[in-house]
């Protein structure tokens, strides 16, 4: 899993930067599929202009149907994080919350797992 954290609002620029970082660090010998919801920053003109460039690097961007959170795997992950994996102490300060979420995401697949069956 690849992730990037940010403080403040997420914009098309934020997402494009995260994608560029991911694309530049992935194994180039394998095609990559990125599944997106319909957030406004995924649909901006600036973002859409990058999709062709990414396609030339074997990165295919696909969109989920609108209003289908049940198909969005990240929603399942966030539900687990929020309601099962985050300790109550994580909510004391923003720094505690940020640290706890980063720790969970860093340990995803080892200490924290989800079975999609």
UniProtKB/TrEMBL annotation:
Pfam families associated with the record: DDE_3
InterPro entries, A to Z: RNaseH-like_sf, RNaseH_sf, Tc1-like_DDE_dom
Gene3D superfamilies, per database record: Ribonuclease H-like superfamily/Ribonuclease H (3.30.420.10)
MF (Gene Ontology): nucleic acid binding
Domain Tc1-like transposase DDE: 3-97
Name of the protein described by the UniProt record: Tc1-like transposase DDE domain-containing protein
Organism, scientific name: Photobacterium profundum (strain SS9)
């Amino acid at each position: 899993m690849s992730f990037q954290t940010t403080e403040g609002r997420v914009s098309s620029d934020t997402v494009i930067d995260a994608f560029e970082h991911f694309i530049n660090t992935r194994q180039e010998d394998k095609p990559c599929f990125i599944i997106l919801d319909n957030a406004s920053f995924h649909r901006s003109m600036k973002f859409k202009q990058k999709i062709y460039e990414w396609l030339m690097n074997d990165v295919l961007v696909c969109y989920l149907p609108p209003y289908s959170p049940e198909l969005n795997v990240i929603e399942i992950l966030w539900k687990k994080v929020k309601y099962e994996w985050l300790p109550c102490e994580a909510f004391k300060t923003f720094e505690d919350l940020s640290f706890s979420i980063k720790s969970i995401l860093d340990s995803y697949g080892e200490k924290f797992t989800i079975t999609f069956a």
